[in-house]
């Protein structure tokens, strides 16, 4: 049992006494460098960001430096440096002069936050066009000042010269430094990922690029390595309170009564109780932690809400379908199966998975009577602003949302809940509130990636040709709660306060270009096991449903190859319809040294089994193929992806080094989800609440080699890299496992216990 802070301990020094003695009280001052810079040099932006105003996209300062205002954020991929390259390219300035200010609702338009790997594919478009338009305007200004035609001018690093008389020159800083452009651009009237603006200027052709396509070094590594970067957890405000939220021990339980006297001995503690929302706040964080642990709460009885993780797939199979769709359907499937010489059929199971971010969510809110500011690690700060405004009864323009780096998320993790709860508490208490979750809150209560069962079958004729292909995934909704926090009804706070339910229904299907005479790709969604305040509420996790679905579909393609006596690569190349896809498949296979085979078996080397597997898919215009080489230890059940080869084609490449890092991150997270990650839960609660009960990939399990083949298509628009690779890692590893062992693993993750049982 954990002691009260007022209990004497026998140890020489408690954590609290050590901190007191060492004077280790850190006060981090909140300072906005961009706002300070622009205030000192004049008002360079409109009072409220407006997509139609060029000044809402970039500013040029008196020293010639440039600030680009980016309405998305970076989740560790060094997206800012790529945006800086694009802006520098169009403006003809050195990339070192371009600063990218991200995810601040006071300085940027709502471009959708980090979403669907669209940081470059969509997010760069308006900034590229705005920078090109700014350059056009500046050249016009220079032509007037120098009394020459625009065609007689050239720009180099923000200095404009007359080509015939290089001594006649001016600069961006002289022309407009510290002042507004006061120019309009044409906005497409869309908010979020699809937002775009255009001007009279035509952006450069790829053949003119000097900066785009170069491996410019990222800017965040020194701050991260040496602990200099300020994260959302480091932000402090004078007089702020620290908060902890208390969740029920059983899913579906409500607050029956609270004994506030049970924490009355802890200095400054206040209890906030509203319907089923319960929190404690205190001037000192440790006191809030202790109060959350010691507060005596009586919870209402709640019947078992869940199947238990060991029965979840049986539940899915039996559950009635709420909604189904067939996004692709052609040919006569009924006839194909009726006339088949044989039918190949298989089912694949995928578990609930957690974001399991490296740290629990944290948010800071300062709510005043007429305005509010929130600092959040959410990947969608503009939508966080909207959700906070809604829960507070304010207009969005009265709330400023500021993104600060957090522990990371790919989709919607617990950050979206934390920012709403911090704002709600700040309004209730009239003081700034810093809310920090505990580890069990983060892993236990974050939105989950949904569990699913995928059923695949194929009709094969007497000649061994696949004449019918039928794939249907059935699972919990990918949008039980929205992928952003703009609607409080999709938050734990809103549900605890009794806001009406508003869950969404949707799933996904494989993305590929396999051609069969008859083919269907479909999905089905079932109702959540608990519709309100559920620790299993489902939403987006990196590449929503991509790893789940392709774990099934790309394994089944392998099964069809072996069933028809063909090499898995040759089978894919025979059936893919898109020429781009075939190029990517061949590139991965060639780099990996693909070994042709038409049958699997135990390939024993030094008491370990070795195998090679391939998988391929499309995602939003990007094409990826992965070859995994694995070692399987039958004694321990361990699976090690010794080498992973990725061929990646995403159109124009902005920063090759940054792209490689992004792909490597996909591989690492994909392996973790393939080999370890599975939310454990009982009929009443999620029991995966820490690193022991929800293990992730250890550093020693990393591949020996991650080999990346980048296929650059400068004539094509960039199509994204943040998510495509991860969807193929589970299938590539599972296919390699089959090649090594002759045993097919159709249930993820491939834990040691499952592997040992399968090989036994």
Describe the structure.
With 760 residues, the chain is of the alpha+beta class. Among the domains are: 33-225, Aldehyde Oxidoreductase, domain 4, CATH 3.30.365; 233-302 and 361-437, Aldehyde oxidase/xanthine dehydrogenase, molybdopterin binding domain (Aldehyde Oxidoreductase, domain 4, 2-Layer Sandwich), CATH 3.30.365; 309-355 and 447-526, Aldehyde Oxidoreductase, domain 4 (2-Layer Sandwich). It is 27% helix and 22% strand. It has 19 helices and 27 strands. Strands 11-12-9-19-16-17-18 form a 7-stranded mixed β-sheet, sandwiched between helices. The protein has a 5-stranded mixed β-sheet with strand order 14-22-21-20-15, sandwiched between helices. The protein has a 5-stranded mixed β-sheet with strand order 23-24-25-26-27. The chain is globular. It starts with 14 loop residues before the first helix and ends with a helix. Mean pLDDT is 93; it is low at 1-31 and 33-42.
Task: Give me a quick take on this structure.
The protein has 760 residues and is an alpha+beta fold. It contains 19 helices and 27 strands.
Helix and strand arrangement:
Layout: H1 15-22, H2 33-40, E1 58-60, E2 66-70, H3 79-91, E3 98-102, H4 124-146, E4 153-156, E5 159-162, E6 165-171, H5 172-176, E7 186-187, E8 197-198, H6 221-225, E9 241-245, E10 255-259, E11 270-274, E12 277-282, H7 285-294, E13 296-299, H8 312-318, E14 321-330, H9 333-338, E15 342-350, E16 362-367, E17 372-376, H10 381-392, E18 399-403, H11 415-429, E19 433-436, H12 439-445, E20 452-460, E21 466-476, H13 492-496, E22 518-526, H14 546-563, H15 568-575, H16 579-592, E23 604-605, E24 608-619, E25 622-633, E26 638-649, H17 656-675, E27 705-711, H18 729-741, H19 752-759
Helix pairs in contact: 3-4, 10-11, 14-15, 14-18
């Amino acid at each position: 049992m954990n002691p009260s802070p007022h209990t004497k301990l026998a140890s020489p020094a408690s954590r609290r006494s050590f901190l007191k003695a060492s004077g280790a009280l850190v006060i981090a001052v909140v300072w906005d460098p961009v706002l300070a810079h622009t205030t000192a040099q004049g008002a360079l932006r409109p009072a409220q960001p407006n997509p139609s105003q060029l000044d809402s996209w970039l500013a040029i300062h008196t020293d010639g430096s440039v600030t680009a205002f980016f309405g998305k954020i970076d989740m560790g991929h060094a997206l800012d440096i790529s945006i800086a390259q694009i802006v520098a390219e169009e403006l003809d300035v050195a990339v070192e002069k371009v600063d990218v200010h991200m995810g601040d609702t006071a300085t940027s338009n709502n471009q959708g936050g980090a979403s669907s790997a669209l940081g470059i594919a969509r997010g760069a478009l308006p900034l590229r066009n705005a920078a090109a338009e700014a350059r056009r305007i500046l050249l016009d200004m220079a032509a007037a000042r120098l009394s020459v035609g625009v065609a007689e001018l050239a720009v180099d690093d923000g200095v404009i010269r007359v080509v015939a008389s290089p001594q006649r020159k001016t600069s961006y800083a002289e022309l407009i430094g510290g002042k507004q452009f006061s120019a309009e651009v044409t906005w497409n009237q869309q908010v979020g990922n699809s937002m775009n603006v255009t001007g009279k200027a035509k952006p450069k052709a790829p053949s003119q690029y000097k900066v785009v396509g170069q491996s410019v070094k990222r800017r965040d590594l020194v701050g991260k390595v040496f602990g200099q970067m300020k994260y959302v957890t480091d932000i402090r405000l004078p007089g702020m309170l620290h908060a902890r939220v208390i969740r029920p021990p059983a899913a579906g339980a409500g607050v029956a009564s609270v004994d506030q006297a049970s924490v009355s001995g802890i200095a400054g503690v206040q209890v906030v109780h509203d319907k089923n929302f319960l929190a404690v706040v205190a001037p000192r964080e440790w006191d809030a932690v202790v109060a959350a642990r010691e507060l005596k709460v009586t919870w209402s009885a709640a019947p078992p809400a869940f199947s238990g993780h060991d029965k979840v797939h049986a539940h899915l199979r039996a559950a009635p379908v709420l909604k189904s769709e067939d996004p692709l359907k052609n040919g006569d499937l009924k006839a194909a199966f009726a006339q088949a010489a044989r039918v190949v059929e298989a089912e694949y199971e995928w578990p609930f998975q957690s974001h399991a971010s490296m740290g629990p969510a944290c948010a800071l809110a300062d709510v005043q009577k007429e305005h509010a500011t929130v600092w959040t690690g959410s990947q969608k700060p503009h939508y966080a602003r909207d959700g906070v405004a809604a829960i507070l009864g304010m207009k969005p323009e009265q709330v400023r949302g500021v993104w600060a780096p957090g522990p990371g998320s790919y989709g919607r993790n617990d950050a979206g809940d934390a920012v709403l709860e911090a704002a709600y508490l700040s309004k209730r208490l009239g003081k700034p509130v810093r809310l920090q979750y505990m580890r069990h809150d983060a892993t236990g209560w974050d939105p989950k990636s949904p569990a699913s069962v995928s059923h695949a079958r194929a009709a094969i004729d007497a000649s061994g040709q696949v004449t019918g292909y039928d794939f249907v995934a059935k699972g919990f909704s990918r949008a039980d709660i929205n992928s952003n926090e703009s609607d409080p009804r999709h938050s734990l706070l809103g549900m605890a306060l009794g806001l009406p339910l508003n869950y969404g229904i949707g799933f996904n299907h494989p993305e590929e270009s396999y051609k069969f005479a008859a083919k269907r790709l479909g999905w089905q969604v079932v109702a959540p096991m608990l519709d309100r305040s559920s620790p299993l509420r489902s939403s987006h996790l990196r590449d929503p449903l991509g790893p789940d679905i392709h774990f099934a579909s790309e394994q089944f393609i392998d099964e069809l190859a072996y069933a028809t006596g063909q090499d898995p690569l040759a089978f894919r190349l025979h059936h893919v319809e898109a020429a781009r896809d075939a190029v990517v498949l061949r590139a991965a296979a060639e780099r990996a040294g693909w070994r042709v085979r038409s049958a699997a078996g135990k390939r024993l080397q030094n008491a370990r089994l070795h195998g090679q597997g391939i998988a391929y898919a499309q995602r939003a215009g990007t094409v990826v193929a992965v070859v995994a080489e694995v070692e399987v230890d039958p004694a321990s059940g361990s699976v090690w992806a010794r080498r992973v080869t990725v061929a990646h084609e995403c159109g124009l490449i902005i920063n090759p080094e940054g792209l490689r890092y992004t792909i490597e991150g996909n591989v690492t997270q994909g392996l973790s989800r393939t080999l370890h990650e599975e939310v454990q839960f009982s009929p009443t609660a999620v029991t995966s609440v820490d690193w022991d009960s929800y293990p992730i990939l250890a550093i020693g399990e990393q591949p020996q080699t991650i080999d990346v083949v980048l296929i650059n298509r400068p004539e094509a628009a960039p199509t994204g890299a943040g998510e495509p690779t991860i969807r193929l890692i589970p299938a590539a590893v599972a296919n390699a496992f089959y090649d090594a062992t002759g045993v097919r693993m159709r249930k993820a993750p491939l834990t040691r216990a499952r592997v040992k049982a399968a090989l036994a």
